[in-house]
Design a protein that fits this description.
Layout: H1 13-32, H2 39-75, H3 93-108, E1 115-118, E2 124-126, H4 130-142, H5 147-150, H6 152-155, H7 161-176, H8 190-208, H9 211-232
Antiparallel strand pairs: 1-2
Length: 252
């Protein structure tokens, strides 16, 4: 549920289909263990199950942000890196704050924070900033309770698109916390962040609609998954595309 819809709204009509599917899956798994779930049980406890699901998803998002926050601060040098702070002569503390405000504005303008330079062909590397990779590895793969360990089928070949979008949403939230030039916490809740998640998902759809950029992103997500599995000692299939099909020998 956290992967498919990380911002359930306790549970509104738009999410009931996803919620009900997971409930039916849980009932089926219990049935395979010879545990029957009666209709009365469902009627009596379904509202509580929905509330528990909502609360657990919220807690899970909070845990992800705790991991992400220091990584974002380090990777983006927030509020300012040492080389970005002017010498004291001719500058006061407000000047430094103003520089930090401008830096955050520049990062968020046109979603510059999601890019990692350009490839050899001069094309932008979208949605592949190293901060995303580090957060994904640390939280989803290396953590002893990471989802990559529990749901390896979803993670061992490629980092799921939904995971990437959620991580980018959290990175945006962490950067915005420095929008005033210094740290000012912003709660990472469904109410405040679900819209941003949908906006980033639309951006991903744009990438997926472009053959060149879609393939490039997929290859990066496959590489991140392979690296994550290696870090966490999770068995995974090697990507044949990264292995040479045959030896190349030049005979002069």
């Amino acid at each position: 549920m956290a992967l498919e819809q990380p911002f359930p709204k306790n549970v509104d009509s738009s999410h009931k289909e996803v919620f009900n599917r997971f409930i039916q899956q849980a009932i089926q798994e219990l049935f395979m263990q010879n545990v029957a779930v009666t209709e009365d049980t469902m009627n009596n406890y379904l509202p509580n199950i929905a509330k528990l699901l909502y609360m657990s998803t919220s807690h899970w998002r909070g845990s992800l942000k705790k991991v992400a926050a220091p990584i974002v601060k380090s990777r983006y040098n927030l509020p300012l890196g040492n080389d970005e702070i002017p010498s004291k002569r001719g500058h006061n503390s407000q000047d430094i704050v103003n520089l930090a405000v401008q830096k955050v504005e520049d990062l968020l303008t046109d979603d510059n924070y999601v890019q990692d330079g350009e490839d050899d062909g001069g094309h932008a590397n979208n949605y592949t900033h190293p901060a995303f990779r580090e957060i994904i590895h640390k939280f989803f793969y290396e953590d002893s309770h990471g989802l990559a360990r529990t749901f390896s089928d979803f993670f061992n070949e490629k980092v799921p698109d939904n995971v990437l979008v959620l991580v980018i949403t959290i990175v945006c939230n962490c950067i915005e916390e420095y929008r005033h030039g210094q740290f000012d916490a912003i709660n990472f809740t469904a109410q405040t962040q679900a819209r941003q998640y949908n906006v980033i998902m639309q951006g991903l759809a744009t990438i997926r609609g472009n053959a060149y950029h879609s393939v490039k992103l997929t290859n990066m997500l496959k590489l991140w998954a392979a690296q994550g599995c290696d870090l966490a000692d999770i068995p995974h299939d090697e990507d044949d595309s990264r292995q040479p099909a045959a030896a190349t020998v030049i005979l002069d």
